[in-house]
Amino acid sequence: MDEWFGALKGLVSVLAMPVPVALGLTLVGFGLVGMRWRRVGRFLVLVAMLTVVLASWEPVADALLEPLEHRHPPIVETASLADVKAVVVLGAGWEPDADGSATSRLNDSAAIRLMEGLRLLRVLSEADLVVLGGNRREGEAPVARGYAAAATEMGVSPERIVVLDTPTDTAQEAYAVREVLGGGERFLLVTSASHMPRAVEHFKRVGLSPIPAPTHFLTGRSAPERFSYWVPSGGNLRKTERAVYEYLGLLALGLDHRGRR
Fold it and tell me: Percentage of residues in the chain with pLDDT exceeding 70?
């Protein structure tokens, strides 16, 4: 049942994105035009075009993503964190077979998450760095190993690094952290700001109380006074896709919780 639900979530997360939705509407629209339902068909094609344009428009992309990113504020003041025992960095993506150092093989999200984790670790002399992320493709080195290698390259002692390289999603990461830290330790949870609401919920579901340390904020980067703010772009389309993905994840988390009652 869990495998079926996971496969369904993956399929929906792909098909519900703006571009596949627009493509589907376009195909249906052209089909209706060919069947002489021209008015309805043209309307669907117009809706498809507007879907892509609006999803690529910064005011829309930011309006969708900003509520997720600002649910938890970033950590600036660290004086109250003296008793924190671990800085937990959730997995992202990397290219293990690419050339270059471990840091250069991390993707943008992974590099920024690790950078924030190391910033916090620097002021928490008694804390360990817990890095997560398994391999999604057979034979591929897990991203947790990439994190550990990159952290070592940046001067972190290997004795302070705990590698959890089997979890492949946020739910599994929460269980893995619980196995290592137990239920009573205070720890910082580092992940992308848009992913933080869902991550916190997963960790709470397994009985943990993480201190959110969001990073990789994507909204609020440009001002409305700039011409580029009003021009659709691929970067804004990716922000909309990020928001849709996270909202679907939160919806699936809620449905899964109800189904287990």
Answer: 94
Q: How many structural domains are present in the chain?
A: 2
CATH number reported for the structural domain that contains residue 190 in this entry: 3.40.50.620
Is residue 156, in this structure, part of any structural domain at all?
yes
Residue 222 lies in a domain: no
What 8-state DSSP symbol labels residue 78? -
Half-sphere exposure of 164 (CA within 13 A, CB side): 24
Whether 169 and 221 have beta carbons less than 8 Å apart is answered as no
What is the token pair recorded at 170? 């946020």
d(CA 151, CA 190): 15
C-alpha distance across the termini of the chain, in Å: 15
pLDDT digits (tens, 9 = 90+) for 133-191: 998 777 788 999 999 999 999 999 999 999 999 999 999 999 999 999 987 789 999 99
* Helix (H) / strand (E) containing 211: strand 211-215
Q: State the average pLDDT over residues 67-92.
A: 93
